[in-house]
Write a structure and sequence with these properties.
Number of domains: 2
Mean pLDDT: 85
Largest sheet: 3 strands, antiparallel
CATH architecture of the largest domain: Alpha/alpha barrel
Radius of gyration: 23 Å
Strand content: 5-15%
Shape: globular
Low-confidence stretches: 1-29, 488-533, 571-575
CATH topology of the largest domain: Glycosyltransferase
Number of helices: 18
């Protein structure tokens, strides 16, 4: 793991490149250049096998059915478990093409990227009588269009700028405009479903999820910054603020709620389905837009998660009102959490959870959708694996933070499993049952936008060199731009914590001081330096007079106490 280096001002920005995923240049010892190139090409072939089969058998419909080499117009089905109100004359929105555009740029295929951009510019329309899930349409379609527009206007995209005149941004703005009626509720919380042509349907369900209300700010905020129209960001921020105001006294939120009454429907919560991207978008909005409001909410929410959900390397679910455990289960969506922890510097905790997820992957060959930890058994019905990207995503983040070649070995294992169990002649099929490896006739669009992208970047991150991006929850790239910030990068990107220095109060960034759990210099172990989301001790030598001089421990999230010897407890770790 890399050692910490002191930095200030603009240098801190470069030091924190793991946070914003500028590429590192250090080679992975034991995983040579030839092996990395081999694995990179293996992922490239996976992507094109999936993409070319989609283009041949499903385009311009939404997603590919790889077993029968046909298609599904699935945009109106995403999140629609009961398959209600399906449109009659909807023929797809080229969803998988939209999702593929940023991946094509990462892979360096500017010719195909231009072809896709121009086709969408000439043919895509949202004037369709189709009821869609706001959250899914936001992260997949709106996010995909905004990211592709940004990449298209980059001079390095090699796009013919005589042909491209912001058509994708115009489409994104049209879609964002169609989202606005969803926010017209008594609480300002958006309805989960919106008809693209007719707005909110009569007698529409008022139930939605925490993710559905709190995970709109990146795409809607970016749309406002690109168009100069603040209304998109304003409604998303209003919803986020309302959602946070509904938290319990423990700073926990439930899973589902009513957008009309503002009442919770499901009070059990965790870091998995229905809540996951709420946490993700808080920290990423802080990075992208620089508002302390996002950090303050995230900081409180993150500490609550560590206090009430964490059990060793696992995270169970708990009642938002009492903090008492409700469900002890692993869900595949939870595998994003180690990647989030890397963004705030909790490397040790991220590594611990990631290894447990990977052990489950090794046990079954892929990651089951739900595993009952208290019974040590698969969930009786949710035994599938729909090619989800979360474990690959966290593996990529952890490698960027540590440069430990073991994470490349994890990536190799994931790639081999996907090729062994999911690859078919017509693309990549989801796994219906991880016990039998029975396949399902569906290739989700996120396999192209996320799974393949993170695996490729694990073995070749050259695209990220000298670039600062935030990845949305769908893997789409949004650049960090000073013009989008409320303040200077060194101020917004750090968790500024007051440190006592004699009679002077100074500020130090816990992120810029982040190191691995222990660092050896000349045979000595340096003191543990707190990660960004926690509170360091008042003195760098960890001496104290009262408990108030001690901070919050980074792995237990408990306040340290001042010992009889005058030192804050739990600050030194030996590996």
């Amino acid at each position: 793991m890399p050692a910490a280096r002191s930095a200030s001002g603009p240098a801190r920005w470069g030091l924190l490149s793991l946070l914003i995923l500028s590429a590192f240049s250090h080679p992975a010892a034991g995983f040579g250049a030839a092996k990395k190139a081999y694995m990179r090409e293996k992922v490239r072939k996976m992507f094109y096998h999936a993409y070319e089969n989609y283009m041949a058998h499903a385009f311009p419909h939404d997603e590919l059915k790889p077993l029968t080499k046909t298609f599904t117009d699935s945009l109106s089905e995403l999140g629609n478990l009961k398959l209600e109100y399906l449109p009659q004359n909807y023929n797809g929105s080229a969803l998988s093409l939209i999702e593929s555009l940023s991946s094509l740029v990462v892979l360096g295929n500017f010719t195909e990227f231009q072809r896709g951009v121009l086709w969408l510019s000439d043919n895509l329309t949202f004037d369709v009588d189709a009821r869609v899930n706001l959250f899914e349409c936001n992260i997949r379609v709106l996010g995909g269009l905004i990211s592709a527009h940004i990449l298209a206007t980059d001079t390095k995209s090699r796009l013919d700028h005589g042909l491209y005149k912001n058509q994708l941004l115009n489409l994104a703005e049209d879609l964002g405009q169609r989202f606005l009626p969803a926010f017209d509720s008594p609480t300002g919380l958006p309805y989960a479903w919106i008809n693209l042509k007719n707005g909110v349907m009569e007698n529409e369900t008022t139930e939605t999820s925490t993710s559905g209300c709190g995970s709109l700010i990146l795409e809607m905020g970016a749309l406002s910054r690109l168009t100069g129209d603040s209304k998109y960001e304003a409604v998303a921020l209003r919803a986020l603020r309302k959602l946070w105001s509904m938290r319990s006294s423990l700073n926990l939120l439930g899973t589902t709620l009513d957008v009309v009454t503002g009442e919770w429907i499901e009070c059990s919560s965790g870091i998995g389905a229905g809540v996951d991207s709420f946490y993700e978008y808080l920290i990423k909005a802080y990075i992208l837009f620089g508002s302390d409001e996002y950090w303050d909410i995230f900081h409180s929410a993150y500490l609550a998660v560590q206090k009430y959900f964490r059990h060793g390397p696992w995270y169970h679910e708990a009642d938002m009102r009492t903090g008492r455990a409700t469900y002890w289960q692993l869900t595949s969506l939870q595998a994003f959490w180690p990647g989030l922890q890397i963004l705030v510097g909790d490397i040790a905790a991220a590594n611990s959870s990631h290894r447990e997820f990977f052990h489950v992957w090794q046990r079954f060959g892929v990651l089951p959708e739900r595993y009952l930890l208290d019974h040590d058994m698969l969930h009786p019905t949710e035994r599938y694996y729909p090619l989800r990207p979360e474990l690959a995503e966290s593996t990529f983040y952890l490698y960027q933070a540590t440069k430990d070649p073991w994470y490349m070995e994890v990536g190799e294992s994931i790639i081999n499993s996907l090729n062994s169990y999911a690859k078919v002649d017509g693309g990549f099929a989801s796994i219906r049952d991880v016990m039998t490896m029975q396949q399902e006739d569906h290739q989700h669009s996120f396999f192209l936008s996320e799974t393949c992208k993170y695996l490729y970047l694990l073995f070749d991150d050259s695209f990220l060199a000298d670039k600062n991006y935030v990845f949305t929850t769908e893997g789409h790239l949004l650049p960090i731009r000073s013009s989008w910030h409320e303040k200077l990068p060194e101020s917004y990107i750090s968790n500024w914590t007051s440190i006592k220095n004699g009679n002077q109060g100074t500020h130090a960034s816990a992120m810029s001081l982040q190191v691995c759990p222990a660092m050896f210099i000349g045979g000595n172990i340096t003191p543990w330096v707190e990660s960004a989301c926690h509170v360091p001790d008042s003195r760098v030598d960890h001496r104290c007079i009262t408990d108030d001089d001690c901070g919050i421990d980074s792995t237990t999230c408990r306040r340290r106490t001042c010992s009889m010897a005058g030192y804050c407890g739990l600050w030194l770790f030996i590996l």
